Write the structure tokens for this entry.
Amino acid sequence: MSYTYFAATLPTLQFDAEPTMTEEDFRERCREYLTPADFAALCALLENGETANPYVARWRNNETQLRNAVARHRAARLGDASAAEQWQRPHSGFDVSIANAVDAAFQEADPMRRDSAIERIRWNIASELAGFDPFSAATIFTYAIHLAILIRSKAADTEKGIARLHGMRNLQAASEE
């Protein structure tokens, strides 16, 4: 199905910019314009629900590979590469560009920049999955992922992150006593 009008009305999203709307507003617009099957797939995409939609399946497969690579790098940074095994999830195929991008992201010393680089990888994966038709359901699904990335990034708070880190260190110190 082509969503020419709907796709053309969506505000442009740019990585590291402010989100143009809330997820709730976006869902309401999608409910109005998408077919029931595409809307159900969009909801499954955003809520990690069940769907047979091929875009969602490809997204989840790539996201799993990305998360596995991140878990391996984080475990290696902690000095226990074998600890990552418990966090590995199965996925089909192997995209070397995802592995290389995660390797590059972990070259970044600053944790916030590293997380931003990982979100950029997600952004790019979603963009590649959109394909060449700017009015397709895949483009709308990509928009949903991009919007979720912007919303998540905006919610990141350095002070809360530092407080959380100190809390984790305090828990670790208490458990070692």
About this structure: The chain has one domain: 4-176. The radius of gyration is 18 Å. The CA atoms of residues 13 and 20 lie 7 Å apart.
